[in-house]
Amino acid sequence: MTTAQQSPQSARSLTWTRRRASVSRFWATYRSHRAGLLGLAGLALIALVALLAPLLVGSDVQSVTTAPGSALEAPSDEFLLGTDQFGRSLFGLLIWGARISLMVGLLAAFLSVAIGTLVGIIAGHFGGWFATVLMRITDWFLVMPTLVLAIVLATVLDHSIWTVILAIGVTSWPTTARLVRAQTLAVESRPYIERAKALGGGHGHVMSRHVLPNVMPLVLAQTTLGISNAILTEATLAFLGLGDPTLISWGGMLQDAREAGAVSSGHWWYLAPPGIAIALVALSFTLCGRAIESVLNPKLGAGR
């Protein structure tokens, strides 16, 4: 094998070695954040329960025609969290609802972060009047209430889970765009960017090979924080009756509890479990996001 053939392999091997070392350093630092570990353990447990839902409670728990109990039974040995107005086990519905709530949170956050990252990098790289137009559009979305825009989209479009994901994703990206643009401007001012351009690197090369890797830590932290906001927004939309009525989600369970009069009749077991589950998932993602921020930017951890 010639030296020319060995060189690309050596470069790739060196790259992967550095990446593995970087991941090891990240995990070693992350483990020192007890709150971050607690949030990660909570997310792992909830995700595992959601994935194993068919094995834990079965798929027929959602059916209103084969409900095993009577309406609004209090918690008991047979029904750990009681039943809903159709006689379905609230424990089983809570586990099945985790699948939808987590899916909406993940996909909506990824869509939001993808749009914000794209807009932020383009605006920071090109500058000029084009960046000014993009930032004015971003400012318009930023000052408009996100929930109001999401409600408008969810009302106009069909009531489906994809509509909820789209409504959350296209209304919550401005904060990410602002942060990524600021980071892009900082990266673009570094000398190696000028060298890359002098060596013939085009816009696509500079943005994908130099800017994007440097803003990815910020994007990762923003994603973890955005997931919790997306889950809360999905729960709000479902509570307002704008979710998919054919699917079980935690927000949909709160909407069903409201329609069943659980608040006025004192059926606390109908309201408390989904509300606590939403709060715990949002808290877990927030703890993970804060820990990642502290790892990637040690100055934040020193200031807290």
Give structural notes.
Residues 1-6 have low confidence and may be disordered. The chain starts with a helix and ends with a helix. Helix 2 (34-51) packs across helix 13, helix 4 packs parallel to helix 8 (174-188) and helix 6 (146-156) runs antiparallel to helix 7. The protein has one domain (38-53, 83-302): MetI-like (MetI-like fold). It has helices at residues 3-30, 34-51, 53-56, 90-126, 128-143, 146-156, 161-169, 174-188, 191-198, 203-239, 250-259, 262-265, 268-296, 298-302. By secondary structure, it is mainly α. The radius of gyration is 23 Å and the shape is elongated.
What is the CA–CA distance across the termini?
54 Å
Radius of gyration: 23 Å
Looking at CATH, which topology would you report? MetI-like fold
Number of strands: 0
CATH class: Mainly Alpha
Domain module tally: 1
Mean pLDDT: 84
Question: What's the architecture in CATH terms?
Answer: Orthogonal Bundle
Helix content: over 70%
Helices and strands, with pairings:
Elements: H1 3-30, H2 34-51, H3 53-56, H4 90-126, H5 128-143, H6 146-156, H7 161-169, H8 174-188, H9 191-198, H10 203-239, H11 250-259, H12 262-265, H13 268-296, H14 298-302
Helix pairs in contact: 2-4, 2-13, 4-5, 4-7, 4-8, 4-10, 4-11, 4-13, 5-8, 6-7, 7-10, 8-10, 10-11, 10-13, 11-13
Summarize the structure in short.
The protein is mainly α and 304 residues long. The chain is 76% helix and 0% strand.
